[in-house]
Amino acid sequence: MIGLQKKISDIEEEMEKAEDRLKQATEKFNEASHSGEESERGRKSLEARYQSDLIRIASLEKQLSEAQIVAEASDKRYDDVSTKIASMEIDLERAEDRAETAEMFACLFLID
Protein backbone atom coordinates (compact mmCIF):
# COMPACT_ATOMS: atom_id res chain seq x y z
CA MET A 1 0.00 0.00 0.00
CA ILE A 2 2.79 2.39 0.87
CA GLY A 3 4.37 1.51 -2.48
CA LEU A 4 1.15 2.40 -4.28
CA GLN A 5 0.84 5.69 -2.41
CA LYS A 6 4.45 6.50 -3.31
CA LYS A 7 3.78 5.60 -6.92
CA ILE A 8 0.61 7.76 -6.94
CA SER A 9 2.57 10.62 -5.34
CA ASP A 10 5.34 10.27 -7.97
CA ILE A 11 2.77 10.20 -10.76
CA GLU A 12 1.07 13.29 -9.31
CA GLU A 13 4.44 15.09 -9.18
CA GLU A 14 5.17 14.11 -12.78
CA MET A 15 1.70 15.27 -13.76
CA GLU A 16 2.30 18.65 -12.04
CA LYS A 17 5.65 18.97 -13.81
CA ALA A 18 3.98 18.05 -17.11
CA GLU A 19 1.25 20.63 -16.46
CA ASP A 20 3.92 23.26 -15.70
CA ARG A 21 5.77 22.37 -18.92
CA LEU A 22 2.48 22.51 -20.82
CA LYS A 23 1.71 25.91 -19.27
CA GLN A 24 5.20 27.19 -20.23
CA ALA A 25 4.87 25.74 -23.73
CA THR A 26 1.43 27.35 -24.09
CA GLU A 27 2.83 30.72 -22.96
CA LYS A 28 5.71 30.42 -25.41
CA PHE A 29 3.29 29.43 -28.15
CA ASN A 30 1.09 32.43 -27.38
CA GLU A 31 4.14 34.73 -27.43
CA ALA A 32 5.31 33.21 -30.71
CA SER A 33 1.81 33.53 -32.15
CA HIS A 34 1.63 37.19 -31.10
CA SER A 35 5.08 37.80 -32.55
CA GLY A 36 4.02 36.06 -35.77
CA GLU A 37 0.92 38.26 -36.00
CA GLU A 38 3.05 41.38 -35.51
CA SER A 39 5.46 40.15 -38.18
CA GLU A 40 2.56 39.52 -40.55
CA ARG A 41 1.21 43.03 -39.96
CA GLY A 42 4.69 44.43 -40.57
CA ARG A 43 5.04 42.37 -43.74
CA LYS A 44 1.67 43.59 -45.02
CA SER A 45 2.65 47.17 -44.22
CA LEU A 46 5.95 46.79 -46.07
CA GLU A 47 4.19 45.14 -48.99
CA ALA A 48 1.69 48.00 -49.20
CA ARG A 49 4.54 50.51 -49.05
CA TYR A 50 6.38 48.53 -51.74
CA GLN A 51 3.31 48.61 -54.00
CA SER A 52 2.93 52.34 -53.35
CA ASP A 53 6.61 52.85 -54.18
CA LEU A 54 6.23 50.88 -57.42
CA ILE A 55 3.32 53.09 -58.45
CA ARG A 56 5.31 56.20 -57.54
CA ILE A 57 8.35 54.94 -59.47
CA ALA A 58 6.17 54.29 -62.54
CA SER A 59 4.74 57.79 -62.25
CA LEU A 60 8.20 59.33 -61.88
CA GLU A 61 9.49 57.34 -64.86
CA LYS A 62 6.58 58.64 -66.94
CA GLN A 63 7.28 62.21 -65.79
CA LEU A 64 10.97 61.74 -66.61
CA SER A 65 10.11 60.48 -70.09
CA GLU A 66 7.81 63.46 -70.66
CA ALA A 67 10.48 65.84 -69.32
CA GLN A 68 13.06 64.32 -71.68
CA ILE A 69 10.70 64.83 -74.63
CA VAL A 70 10.14 68.47 -73.60
CA ALA A 71 13.89 68.95 -73.11
CA GLU A 72 14.64 67.53 -76.57
CA ALA A 73 12.02 69.81 -78.14
CA SER A 74 13.46 72.78 -76.23
CA ASP A 75 16.99 71.90 -77.39
CA LYS A 76 15.77 71.75 -80.99
CA ARG A 77 14.02 75.11 -80.63
CA TYR A 78 17.18 76.54 -79.04
CA ASP A 79 19.28 75.26 -81.93
CA ASP A 80 16.81 76.73 -84.46
CA VAL A 81 16.73 80.10 -82.69
CA SER A 82 20.51 80.09 -82.28
CA THR A 83 20.92 79.45 -86.01
CA LYS A 84 18.45 82.24 -86.84
CA ILE A 85 20.25 84.65 -84.51
CA ALA A 86 23.61 83.82 -86.11
CA SER A 87 22.08 84.38 -89.55
CA MET A 88 20.52 87.68 -88.41
CA GLU A 89 23.86 88.82 -86.96
CA ILE A 90 25.51 88.17 -90.33
CA ASP A 91 22.69 90.04 -92.06
CA LEU A 92 23.11 92.90 -89.57
CA GLU A 93 26.84 93.10 -90.25
CA ARG A 94 26.15 93.22 -94.01
CA ALA A 95 23.47 95.87 -93.53
CA GLU A 96 25.84 97.95 -91.39
CA ASP A 97 28.55 97.57 -94.04
CA ARG A 98 26.08 98.66 -96.74
CA ALA A 99 24.95 101.58 -94.58
CA GLU A 100 28.55 102.69 -94.09
CA THR A 101 29.22 102.37 -97.81
CA ALA A 102 26.03 104.31 -98.59
CA GLU A 103 27.05 107.04 -96.12
CA MET A 104 30.47 107.26 -97.72
CA PHE A 105 28.92 107.58 -101.22
CA ALA A 106 26.41 110.10 -99.91
CA CYS A 107 29.22 112.14 -98.38
CA LEU A 108 31.20 111.96 -101.63
CA PHE A 109 28.22 113.10 -103.69
CA LEU A 110 27.36 115.87 -101.27
CA ILE A 111 30.91 117.12 -101.23
CA ASP A 112 31.05 117.33 -105.03
Q: What oligomeric state best describes the polypeptide chains here?
A: single chain
Amount of beta strand: under 5%
N- and C-termini, Cα separation:
160 Å
The biggest beta sheet is recorded as:
none
Anisotropy-based shape: rod-shaped
Helix content: over 70%
Descriptors for this entry?
single chain, 112 residues, mainly alpha, 1 helix
Question: Would you mind describing this structure in some detail?
Answer:
This protein is mostly helical and 112 residues long. It is 98% helix and 0% strand. It is built from 1 helix and no strands. The N and C termini lie far apart (160 Å).
Topology:
Elements: H1 2-111
What is shown here, in short?
The chain is mainly α. 98% of the residues lie in helices and 0% in strands. The N and C termini lie far apart (160 Å).
